[in-house]
Amino acid sequence: MNKRKLSAGSFIKWTIALVLVVIQVYPFFYVFTSSFKSLEDFRKLPAYALPSHWDITNYINVFTKSHMPTYFKNSIIVLVGVLIPLLLFALMAGFALSKIKFKGRKFILNYFLLGLMLPMQVALIPLFTIFNKLGMINTYPAIILPQIAFSLSYSIQLFYSFSKFFPEEMLEAAIIDGCSPIGCFFKMVVPMSKNSVITVATMQAVFCWNEYINAYTFTRSTDMKTITLGLNDFVGSMGLTDWGATFAAISVTVLPVFIFYFFSSKRMLAGMAAGAVKG
Q1: Mean pLDDT of the chain
Q2: What tens digit of pLDDT does each residue of 237-264 get?
Q3: Cβ neighbours for 207, distance < 8 A, ≥ 6 positions apart
Q4: Burial 223-238, CB ≥16 within 10 A → b, else e
């Protein structure tokens, strides 16, 4: 009886898990397979059918008949411009708040905690007014700076939690041996915080790549649009005439996120689980 109950329970659990996997995976599978379909396939074949022949014409059209390369270039520039200063400032601030004892440390930490309660949308109008007066509209700094500012609080909190597990004895020994505080940070803290850096970088990279409203507010010309704005324009212009190219554009837009997460997920999970400190 116990074995029968166990078998029945396992069967139900595996069935539910399989259904959930299909529900989550099928939309991606449908978009990917549809990106290879021709217009004739969309007219004649059922929606769930595979392409009659696998052809990369739709992908070629995405990069030759649109501004998709420009959109990719802008998104990469914004991504690098956000991640490098964000990781540097957040790691230094999180480490300092967790290891350096000074007056007002708790107040500063609580001040950064307040930033978690303020979404970027509440500052869009004031920021637009300021950037417009400074002549920064339709520039990279107008897209990059708000993302850094509103990501600092979250990133500092993560690095603060990771840095608490960093052994103070190693820092004291390095300082006794003559290493400066800056030297300790770059020669010891940064290499040993690799997992935490990858964790924060992965999360912020996904947020930055998928960001829409900030880029929409501060850009005007096609030459400055990011991949999310470009995809919106592409679907708007091609979606009614060429569904294959539309699905191809969606595929190439989400592919970098999957690749980035695939290669960093192991270290990201290790950083979340172990505080980014080895042994």
Answers
A1: 83
A2: 655 677 888 889 888 888 888 887 777 7
A3: 151
A4: ebbbbbbbbebbbeeb
Q: Are 126 and 60 in contact (CB under 8 A)?
A: no
pLDDT tens digits along 177-197: 888 878 888 888 888 888 888
Q: What is the CATH number of the domain that holds 139?
A: 1.10.3720.10
In a domain, 62, yes or no: no
The secondary structure of residue 223, as a DSSP letter, is: G
DSSP state of 189: I
Environment class of 120 (CB within 10 Å of its CB; exposed 0-12, middle 13-18, buried 19+) = middle
| In-domain check, residue 71 | yes
Residue with tokens 């139900």: 12
Report whether 159 contacts 196 (CB < 8 A).
yes
Cβ count near 128 (within 10 Å):
15
First to last CA, the chain: 46
- As a whole number of angstroms, the distance between CA 49 and CA 41 comes to 9
Rounded distance, CA 30 to CA 42, Å?
Answer: 12
53 and 71 share one domain:
no
Domain coverage including residue 82: 67-274
Task: Give every CB contact of residue 56 below 8 A, 6+ residues apart in sequence.
Answer: 36
Residues 162 and 89 in one domain: yes
Residue indicated by tokens 């990133």? 155
